C-alpha cells in the first residue's frame, strides 16, 4: 500500500480509535482508582503526520513493515511514582488486558543506560467489559506504556527530544547522557527506599498517616488532593489522636474504614456537589475527621476552631449524622 492508501484507511478507522481512546482513559482511571493506586494516566491518538512518520521510520528498520502491523495508533501511558507501584500496575493491566508485554529494560546490558518502559500491545478482555463494548473494540488494540516518574523523564530526553546515546558522536556528551541515565535509575531506587521508610515508620508522623490514608481515599473519593495541604492538616489532627504505636493506628483506621466504607461512599455520592465548598472534604484526612467524629467528638469540638472555621466541622459532622454543634 502507498502512504496515501494508508491515510485513507486511517481516516476510516480513526473514529473507532477515537472512541476506544475515550473509553480506555475512563476504564483505566476506574480500575486504578478501585485499587487505590495513585498513577497518572495519559492517552493519545496518532495524528496523520505522526502515523506516516512512524511508518517511514519502521520501514527503514524493516522494509516489509505495514500499516496493519502498527499497534500504537491509540496509546495509553501509566506513570507511577515508585518501582513497586509500577510492578503492581503491570499486574493490574495483565488482569484486564490480553496481549504481548515487553519490558524494554531487559534489552539493556548491565553497563548500558537507555530507554526503560514496559509496553503491552493490549486488547480488552471479554470478561471485564459489557458484551457490546467488547464487540465494538475487539479488533482494535491500544499500546499501553507503564513507567515510573524517573523513567518518564529519561523517555522524554531519550525519545521525545531524540538524545539517544548511540546517536551521539561527541564522547563527552555521550558520557553525560550515560551518567544522567544512571542518576535517574539511582533516584528511582532511592525514592522507593524513602517510600518504604515512610511506610514502615515507627513514629506517627503526618507522612505516615497520609501514606495509610491515601489508598482508601482514592478508592472511596476518586478526587485529586493536595499533599502539602494534607501534611499541614495532619500536623493538627495527629495531636488529637491517642495511639501507642503506628501498628495500632494502622490497624484501627483500617478497621474503621472497612466498617464504614459504604457510609463514606454514600456521603461522597450524596454530597458531591458540596465537596468543593469544604476544602477538607476532598483530602484524605477527612477519614481521620470522620473517625474522630465517631469516636471522640469532644476533642474535635474543643480544639477545632484553633485551626479551622467552625462551619467546616459543622458540615462534616452533619454529613456523618452526628452533629457536633447543636
Structure description:
It is a single chain. It contains 13 helices and five strands. It has 326 residues and is an alpha+beta fold. It has two domains: 3-167, 2-Layer Sandwich (Beta Polymerase, domain 2), CATH 3.30.460; 206-319, no CATH class. Strands 1-2-5-4-3 form a five-stranded mixed sheet. Helix 11 (286-295) packs across helix 12. The N and C termini lie far apart (76 Å). The relative contact order is 0.08.
Query: What's the story with the biggest beta sheet?
Result: 5 strands, mixed
Overall morphology:
globular
Secondary structure class reads alpha+beta
Strand-and-helix sequence, N→C? HEHEHEEHEHHHHHHHHH
| Largest beta sheet: strand ordering | 1-2-5-4-3
Q: What's the number of structural domains?
A: 2
Mind telling me which CATH architecture of the largest domain this is? 2-Layer Sandwich
CATH T-level topology of the largest domain = Beta Polymerase, domain 2
Radius of gyration: 24 Å
Top CATH class of the largest domain: Alpha Beta
What is the CATH superfamily label of the largest domain? Answer: Beta Polymerase, domain 2
Amino acid at each position: 500500500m502507498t502512504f496515501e492508501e494508508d491515510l485513507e484507511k486511517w481516516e476510516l478507522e480513526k473514529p473507532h480509535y477515537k472512541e476506544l481512546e475515550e473509553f480506555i482513559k475512563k476504564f483505566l482511571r476506574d480500575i486504578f482508582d478501585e485499587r487505590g493506586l495513585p498513577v497518572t494516566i495519559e492517552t493519545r491518538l496518532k495524528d496523520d503526520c505522526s502515523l506516516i512518520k512512524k511508518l517511514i521510520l519502521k520501514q527503514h528498520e524493516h522494509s516489509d513493515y505495514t500499516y496493519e502491523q502498527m499497534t500504537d495508533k491509540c496509546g495509553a501511558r501509566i506513570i507511577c511514582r515508585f518501582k513497586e507501584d509500577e510492578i503492581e500496575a503491570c499486574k493490574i493491566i495483565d488482569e484486564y488486558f490480553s496481549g504481548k508485554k515487553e519490558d524494554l529494560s531487559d534489552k539493556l546490558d548491565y553497563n548500558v543506560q537507555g530507554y526503560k518502559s514496559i509496553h503491552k500491545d493490549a486488547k480488552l478482555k471479554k470478561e471485564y467489559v459489557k458484551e457490546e463494548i467488547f464487540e465494538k473494540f475487539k479488533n482494535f488494540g491500544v499500546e499501553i506504556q507503564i513507567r515510573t516518574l524517573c523513567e518518564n523523564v529519561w523517555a522524554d530526553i531519550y525519545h521525545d527530544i531524540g538524545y539517544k546515546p548511540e546517536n551521539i558522536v561527541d564522547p563527552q556528551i555521550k558520557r553525560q547522557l550515560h551518567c544522567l541515565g544512571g542518576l535517574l535509575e539511582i533516584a528511582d531506587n532511592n525514592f522507593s527506599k524513602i517510600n518504604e521508610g515512610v511506610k514502615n515508620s515507627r513514629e506517627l508522623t503526618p507522612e505516615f498517616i497520609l501514606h495509610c490514608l491515601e489508598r482508601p481515599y482514592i478508592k472511596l473519593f476518586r478526587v485529586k488532593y493536595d499533599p502539602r495541604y494534607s501534611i499541614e492538616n495532619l500536623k493538627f489532627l495527629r495531636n488529637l489522636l491517642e495511639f501507642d504505636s503506628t501498628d495500632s493506628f494502622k490497624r484501627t483506621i483500617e478497621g474503621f474504614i472497612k466498617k464504614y466504607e459504604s457510609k463514606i461512599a454514600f456521603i461522597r455520592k450524596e454530597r458531591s456537589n458540596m465537596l468543593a465548598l469544604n476544602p477538607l472534604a476532598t483530602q484524605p484526612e477527612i477519614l481521620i475527621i470522620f473517625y474522630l467524629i465517631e469516636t471522640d467528638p469532644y476533642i474535635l469540638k474543643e480544639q477545632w476552631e484553633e485551626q479551622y472555621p467552625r462551619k467546616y466541622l459543622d458540615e462534616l459532622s452533619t454529613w456523618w449524622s452526628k452533629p457536633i454543634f447543636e
